[in-house]
Design a protein that fits this description.
- With 177 residues, the protein is an alpha+beta fold.
- It folds into two domains: 2-78, 2-Layer Sandwich (Alpha-Beta Plaits); 85-163, 2-Layer Sandwich (Alpha-Beta Plaits), CATH 3.30.70.
- 36% of the residues lie in helices and 25% in strands.
- The strands form two sheets. It has a four-stranded antiparallel sheet with strand order 2-3-1-4, sandwiched between helices. A four-stranded antiparallel sheet has the order 6-7-5-8.
- Helix 3 packs across helix 6 (163-174).
- The protein is globular and about 45 Å long.
């Protein structure tokens, strides 16, 4: 069994795509996932499952949610090692108010170059591999460089989590060992 972290995109936001975490846990268990744990209402799930490719697990989850709820919910599967690397590579180590934008795949160089033409006052980011490290001292709710912006410019599906959530998800994976 391997441990995985599932990050769902866009559930329980402004009353849209409502999924109760208890129901989500049951849905994951129906897929054969073990030791399923959810964290807060925004679709963070840690679980154990036999070794499988991330895109296969993502598709299983996507199909199950679509069949059960009738709406599409993109999701991203990460491993504990990917979270460890993201935390280690964080260029904003001493800043608590920062976010990780996890990208589903590596964007093209052309789209990275396009992204680099944009800057906004008091918003800072750095792209490393498939993670955008984002710091916005004025708060994420006011940020122009948000998840939708990054997705649109990079033409890659993404989901964003704050530092506290990323650390907590890693801590949850350690409880399995």
């Amino acid at each position: 069994m391997n441990t995985y972290i599932s990050l769902l995109r866009g559930i329980n936001v402004s009353g849209q795509k409502k999924i109760l975490m208890a129901d989500l846990k049951s849905l994951y268990e129906d897929l054969g996932f073990k030791n399923v744990q959810t964290y807060i209402q925004s679709g963070n799930v840690v679980f154990d499952f036999k070794e499988k490719k991330a895109d296969q697990i993502q598709q299983m989850i996507f199909d199950k949610i679509q069949a059960h709820y009738g709406f599409d919910v993109p999701n991203l599967i990460l491993t504990p090692n990917q979270i460890i690397t993201a935390l280690k590579d964080n260029p904003y180590q001493d800043i608590e108010k920062m976010y990780f934008v996890f990208l589903a795949k590596t964007p093209s160089q052309e789209n990275i170059d396009l992204l680099n033409t944009f800057s906004f006052d008091n918003e800072f980011y750095e792209l490393k591999n498939n993670v955008i490290y984002f710091h916005c001292p004025d708060g994420y709710g006011r940020a122009k460089l948000n998840n939708n912006f990054f997705e649109k410019k990079l033409k890659v599906s993404a989901t964003t989590r704050n530092l506290r959530t990323v650390k907590k998800l890693l801590e949850m994976t350690n409880s399995f060992n």
